[in-house]
Design goal:
The chain is α+β, with helices and mostly antiparallel strands and 276 residues long. The chain has seven helices and ten strands. It is 54% helix and 18% strand. The strands form three sheets. Strands 4-3-2-1-5 form a five-stranded antiparallel beta sheet. Strands 7-9-8 form a three-stranded antiparallel beta sheet, covered by helices on one side. It has a two-stranded antiparallel sheet with strand order 6-10. The chain is elongated.
Length: 276
Amino acid sequence: MEMNVSTLERYATMMGDLAVQFGTKLIVAIIVLIIGLWIIKRILKLFDLAMDKKKVEITLHQFMLSIVSILLKAILVIIFASMVGVETTSLIAVLGAAGLAVGLALQGSLSNFAGGILILFFKPFKAGDVIDAQGYVGVVQEIQIFNTILLTLDNQRVIIPNGLLSNGCVKNLFVEPTRRVDLTFGISYGDDIKKAKEVLQSVVDADERILKTPGVDIFVSAHADSSINILVRPWTNSENYWPVYFGVMEEVKLAFDRENITIPFPQRDVHMIQPK
């Protein structure tokens, strides 16, 4: 009986020592956890202010805050587990293997995700821009993390994966303040080229939407099958590109009609050979 009592006392002493030791570790770990959460909160606030100062896109802003918050809290949890005696090496290995498996399963989505981050960070285009990409021309309605939404000129909604946009060619049509309008007009071989160029110059000069600087280029561009082609290249503000394009096309036709300058159409001479 004395032996049993002695054994119980020894076990009780060991349990007490373990409780004191583990309790001390747990208390220290909880204190570190509380301080760590406070530090993370301060870091996120500073990061938020820095992105506000840099005027980062709101979608990227929120996403980056979430990612940084998750990473910092994950590190803090690992530190907490290590302090209370949990073996973290195997835990990190399991998390790494799980991350690799998820990455392989979602590699297409991750490509679009990475593309979205690049687009939001480097800003090759933004909401409201008119772009030509992947065979579609339209206004950028929204840039999401995985996709970009376009509204085409005939009012169709197109969703393009960001992976394609970040790795392909994208033409931002009106990002610059001015655009050159390239127009080609054909006159017949029997018309006076100098007179035609003077008429074209007068039409361009009369349009107030066309910029005086840089000046307009007017020159013969080709001796075509049925016409002499004259290239006209005025400059205008980007928002006036289409009004200038269609307006000059109409005014040139009216001016050529007044001056009796012929806009030819394809013709073919047919020779009939009568048998002798």
